[in-house]
Input
Amino acid sequence: MSSTIWSVDDHLEDILSAIRPLDPIELQLPDAQGCVLVEDVTVPVALPPFDNSSMDGYAVRTADVSGASEEFPAVLAVIGDVAAGGGGLPTVGPGQAVRIMTGAPLPPGAEAVVPVEWTDGGTGGGAATTMRPAGEAPEGASGEVRVHRPAEAGAHVRRRGSDVQAGDLALEEGTVLGPPQIGLLAAIGRGTVRVRPRPRVVVLSTGSELIQPGEKLGEGQIYDSNSFALSAAARDAGALSYRVGAVTDDAETLRATIEDQLIRADLLVTTGGVSVGAYDVVKEALSSVGDEDVPGSGIDFRKLAMQPGKPQGFGSIGPEHTPLLALPGNPVSSYVSFELFVRPAIRALMGLKDVHRPKARAVLKADKALSSPSGRRQFLRGTYDPESGTVSPVGGSGSHLIAALAHADCLIVVPEADTSVEPDAEVEVVLIG
Output
């Protein structure tokens, strides 16, 4: 264990300097969700690829409906039917119209689409509210339609290329692929895309006192909440997370478990067993994981000038130099440590440029001054109101108060030099909600 007291910033810098973004791979679109693009994607074909109708109605020439009104409707001969995906388009001549469905290509000669609500729907009655099914159209959709309103050129027509033009930049390198981006890639015909994969993060908690939720608590036992919280946090950060059940405080068991997990881990996170009483067990286990002949392997256990989360461990293990972060076991300590150190590491593995949570300045709303230990950067749970620009503390400073954490959406940062923060003072907050 290192005897030096590390600052929060130096510890984070040490972690990020050791993290390398994962190598790019080609993935099918469904598998690429949440991944980061490693290439600019250009549009091969215009969207939409042809002029098409944005309404169910009739494709017409504007001159034929220019004077149309309720009293004096334009009467047009219906010469055919055009559905989305249909081919063999009829040409619309003077005095003619074509029944057209939303998304169907605009037939030659037509200049606009009149919605069915502006017509009698070809029934000879009053204004229609919906199109009749094609099978009910007389003689293959022939007959007459009465149009009650004029239409300008291009009315209710989606022009070719009005969304994107061929050659346009669709998505930039570095874009995180969410549902709209996946939809755009599919729309321009891309079945696969080159991305950095989502990091695989293995989370395991240590402690002989831990049992799984759903089991009956025995004397001196507590439920293992950390592995659930941190696995969820890893997923929230963009990773694929694997939760390993609690491991007893036994060096050999811990070492064997970690070695088993190395095959599916881009990053390992342990929680618990880094306080003073457990150093020997965890240090013994982690110092001999993987290939002992690999230079640079091993975990450095440190004390950080922060509260909560003073004890931390970081290093790499195994033949692939898999990074490992050892977090404290107290629930709030582990979660705060995750936000400050593990989340940025996950984002760095993804190849994201900005790995940090957003920050804001806020006015402290509290009944009394907040106290903080000298020489340590304190992170308190809080609720942030962006409209008023204020933040209120939630719960106390105890590292076991997980209920308060569940109601917090930010961390209030008290700098190392400050031992007290008065109400109405301006503070920095890290937004985690």
